[in-house]
Amino acid sequence: MSRLAFPLALALGAVPSLGAQDANLTHLRWRADSLLGEWRQANAIADLVDSLERERAGSGRDTIAVGALRIVTNPSPLRVREAAARAWPLLDSLYGSAAAGLATRPYLVRAFDPDTTVRRPGLHVGMEVPWTLDVSALTQVLLANVPLDQPDPALSAWLSAPVRLLGSARTRGAVYVQLVTAPFQPARSCFLGDLRACRDALELGDGDPIERWYPGPTERRAVVSRWLPGASERPASAPGYRACVAGDDAACTNLLRSVPAAALPRPLDVTARATLVQTARRLGGREAYARLMAHPDAPMAERLASSAGVDLDVLLSKWRSEILAARPAPVALPPWALWVASAWTVVFAACGLRSSRWRVT
Amino acid sequence: MFRAILFSQWKWSRLIVALGAVAGFALPIVSLQGAAAADRSPLQVESLLRVVQSWGTLYPVLAAALGLLVAMATWAPDHRGRHVHALSLPLPRWRYALLRFGAGVTVLAAPIVAVLLGALLATTAATIPAGLQTYPIALALRFALALLVAYAVFFAISAGTARTAGIILGAIAALIVVQIVAGVANVELGLPDRLQMLVLNWPGPLAVFTGRWMLLDV
Fold it and tell me: CA of B165: which chain A residue's CA is closest?
């Protein structure tokens, strides 16, 4: 009897606390539901405002059509048609058949006089550009603000941005510099020709990102000490941080695993991934974009290979070759610097020959 | 005649030249010290480049300092002796100045060669990570050009009269005054910025000093 007394007392004592927990849970559920309702209502109002704003922005304007491109703009000296004529072939080649969707999603461009101080009404949709903008700059604005739907979450997370045209040689040159200088083994190995490392560096591999991105203990320690210095100040992570810095690899790994993967430094940044998409687009031709978007649930490696129409290793190999070919020019003197500097030397020397203290009495 | 002037030039500036040559030889070696370390990780390329770039700022400083000191040493004895020796020579003034200039350039060859040798030695001894290239000859050539330009500028200034110096200083003062007056009148002139652009960007006279001085780069 006495053996049963303690569990019985414990169970009886727990009844009120379980009841209180239930009440708390119900209350929290009610609050969550209430928040969801508020959020839905706010979204509906935002959509309504957006729709009204679009209506207002588009009223009394001209619509310029070039290909499937539609630009709603106010009358101004801004050379919208020329810019659209330049932008359309590029957009058509980038998005292929998906570019046809632009016909239903016009750009809203409001040109304004940059030389006036007269206050203009606010515009919450579309773009405001000074009407002195030249055609090249306006073309870049159109290319950078394509009003297509946002890509699926997987592509958005991987690319951190919609698929856009990139400035070719300079961007690839920047990726070359990353491959050479990034303090991560996958980037270095990719530079040296290891395509599996390229997969890891471009976040296309499967498995544990920590093992793939920071394969060595030295790297893991370096990542913790360089990118997670705040861990030393939090009571929960400070002992692990100290152990990691002291050389305990398990502590480093645990610390890295405690951080969301999105917050960890990548072997290569988003520019490298964007250049890979560009290579896939070039290889895949006009329908590359449509194929990239066709299976949002497939792994990114498969989607890219499908977009390029080749095996992933072929795509990576081609991408690597393009990056290596884009090695930026080293910091050196321009070819004519020798002559310019020599000429200045002669000029200053001649000044020295002319100017004379001998004339001073 | 040139040999005599060269000898006097060497006598007056040998200490400067010797110190400059030692500094020029040591600079590339010190800047690549990180690459020669046995415990260096191949992943520390970025920090290696940062170190090389930091040390690289000293090349134009060394070139300017050497140009200034050697140019001053070229004319200082003449100024001290009130040009009596020069006037006693059976030479026109321009020829004498040209010989002096040539003698100065000749002694400056030593620091240039020192930088070249130091850079070649440093790049040979260091273990360069894959993907990085060394530029010892380009660096030495750039150092030579900067040194010659600096020497020519300071040679001209040292050879000039107080009147010339007054004119130059007066022009600079006038520029500042105009800029201030324009600023008061709310007129955007940006004269100092424009002047800086003209002088420090190619094909400006001091453009060779600007930019990154990299013995090692991608």
Answer: A355
